[in-house]
Write a structure and sequence with these properties.
Elements lengths: L3 E7 L6 H8 L5 E6 L6 H7 L3 E4 L6 H10 L5 E4 L4 E2 L2 H10 L7 E10 L2 E13 L15 H6 L4 E11 L4 H21 L4 H13 L3 H15 L6 H19 L4 H13 L4 H13 L3 H13 L11 H18 L3 H17 L2
Parallel strand pairs: 1-2, 1-4, 2-3, 6-8
Antiparallel strand pairs: 4-7, 5-8, 6-7
Length: about 350
Amino acid sequence: MPALSCCIIVKNEAHRLPPLLQSLAGICEQIVVVDTGSTDNTAKEAEDMGADVTVFPWNDSFSDARNKSLECARHPWILYVDADDYLPESSLQSIRELKRKQPQEAYVFIVKSTQDGITGIASAQIRMFPNMENLRFRYRVHEQIRPTLIQNGIPIVPTEIEVIHIGYTDRETVADKQRRNLELLQKDLADCPQDGFLHYLAGMAWLDLKNPALARDEFIKAWELTVSDPEKRHIALGAALELAEIAFKEEQDKHEDALLWLERAEDIDNQYPRCFYLRGRLNYERGDIEKALKPLRYLMECQKPSFLLPLDITMLKTTGAALMGQIYMKTGRPQEAVAILNQAEQFLKKSP
């Protein structure tokens, strides 16, 4: 049966590593830990638990650190995780089953970020793939294995396997992280100015840093560079939705640009949950209250949305339900308002 190497890059994670490594020991024949400059006892903790530890001086590239970990991997399968990840037992069992296969495919996991124990944004990430010399990560930050998988014709297969990622919660830490990310993104953009994915990421960073004007510029570039590329249309979708949100907040009662960008997003995927929500919200704000209900009802029925773009489906449905409650109250339907708000409460209870 093919064996599995788990690859982790770390810095000052001594407090997180022991439980993670303990859980991984049951499914991995090798655990590789690449330390990028810890000042605590991270390396010793990892070595004491049987990991193969390599020191890699930080050089402003997460991909270089990830690729160093791949160079140290000895087994046919690669699994990569972060030090602040948690894998539920059901996920560990599913990985056990996957590694029995011959390493000919890459597998997409659903990574759910948490803040203070509340599950928030989820995204699809390729976390398990064959150990091949020509499969390497790209980009200094938000590193991706997908481009080289596509180049090498490796099928990318979605799964229901979940990884819980414990994210940052305080605003200043998030801002510091995004300032660092922007510096790295700008270096990548200097090398690859026509990469729409990088412009999209820069836009998201500027949004976190409360600069919608610069975010808009980056999203427009992302849209222009990806809308005609079948492999990157999801980036164009994300850029259009962010541009619609920015316009919605800035235009007050007009919303012409918001509607324009929403229509462009719907041209790509009119079944995407955020399209339903924004369509309902725009109809409501434009005074067409009854017409707002139809897309919001569709939102409530969404079961398994694509997570190629980060999405907090629980919060989106909850917000949509709250808007429906307002509509029902305004139109004299209090029982329906109570019912939809009870449904919103159930969404929150079901959230892991």
